[in-house]
Amino acid sequence: MVDIQGDCGPRFERVRAAFAENFAQRNEYGAAVAVYIDGAPVLDLWGGHADRDRTRPWTRDTLVNLFSTTKGLTAICAHRLVDQGLLDLDAPVALYWPEFAQAGKDHIRVRQLLNHRAGLPALRRQVPDESIYDWAAMTTALAAEEPWWTPGTKHGYHAITFGWLVGEVVRRVTGKTLGRYFRDEIAAPLGLDCYIGLDAKDDARCGQMLQSPRPPEGQVNIFKYAQDNPESVTAKAFFNPAGAMKLGAVNSRAWRGAEIPAANGHGTARGLARLYGALACGGVLDGVRVLGPEAIARCSHEESSGRDEVLLIPTRFSTGFMLTQPQDLMGPNARPFGHPGAGGSLGFADPEARIGFGYTMNKMGPYILIDPRPRALLEAVYASL
To answer: Which domain holds residue 318?
Structure first.
């Protein structure tokens, strides 16, 4: 039996029950879930253990690596710059980052970095694993890279490169790294316990990420495909450099302290729910304006759909956010937006229901999009309304 802690009113007892079932039936180890509705917190639960040996209980303030859930935080930064009149989504990337015009990339638009249509999900030439911590090395390599397809004609998940591509545009526009811009403009004003580039003082709060089991029969196994096809865009997207796929790396100080804005955000479920709770209610929460109505409308407007050249399954994206998928819904409504992360984490906003949802965990699952654990929780949330 796992001791479930936190706050949950009678209306949402079925969410508490689903959370307990995750531990009993769905291989949960340590996790948290939080929900905002109409700009107010309605539940905040946590339980389990933060380490493999079960010596550290998961606490109210346990942080974990968010993997691709980080992309939502990064996209919000770009949309905020558009709101501020500092960034034009339809301008060439090279307007802000002149070196990017190399190798026929002078016509790639900023929005194509966000909607995964830029054709830059990977580097062809193998780079050392430690390059993942070297911002200049990765952005220089991407500036010189030739697109894998004619930009705008296809989409493919920019699994790790998304963060350097969008982050370098943010840095060129603001003079701040993506992590610092997120902290100064969004996290600190809203009081979010979320970071892109974690201070060493917070290492003691971090949950240890644990290995995923094998994917179930019948599911596309993109990592097996990558291993069998090492020169494919899928393999290069996830394993060049390979640091993001090694648990020894993602549990290290080097990983936590770096800024890898597609994959190494750290946060709590509460922080994710509060951030997306603001976006679900018009972009303002407790007097802090994150985004305006036009930006929020963009967040849920489909710009890419169909077969994904990297993930090898159908996917849908807006400018920076994953949208609800026909085969993998984020609730019953039509316009939720957010992002899942490898292993299971999830943050999203549903403006129609005015819901902000956050889920974090340390035991990774093998699913490509939404893991059964957060699915059970979000379904229980909607059933409680």
So the answer is: 5-75+179-384
d(CA 160, CA 163): 6
- Cβ atoms within 10 A of the Cβ of 289, count? 14
| Helix extents (H) in 26-101 | 70-83, 93-96
Please give the Cα distance from 314 to 316 (Å, whole number).
Answer: 7
Residue 316 has pLDDT above 80, yes or no: yes
* 125 located within any domain: no
> Token digits for 237?
């997207």
Residue 115, domain member (yes or no): no
| 137 occurs within a structural domain | no
227 in any annotated domain: yes
Catalytic-labelled residue, pool 68, 212, 318, 384:
68
Question: Tokens in use for 304?
Answer: 């890419």
| Residue 154 CB partners (closer than 8 Å, separation 6+) | 117, 119, 309
Name the helix (H) or strand (E) containing 248: helix 247-250
CATH number at residue 67: 3.40.710.10
Of these ranges, 209-213, 286-290, 327-331, the one predicted with the greatest mean pLDDT is 286-290
- Residue 68 annotated among the catalytic residues of the structure: yes
Q: What is the DSSP letter of 210?
A: B
The total number of structural domains in the chain stands at 1
pLDDT digits (tens, 9 = 90+) for 107-129: 999 999 999 999 999 999 999 99
Q: For tokens 């009149």, what's the residue?
A: 85
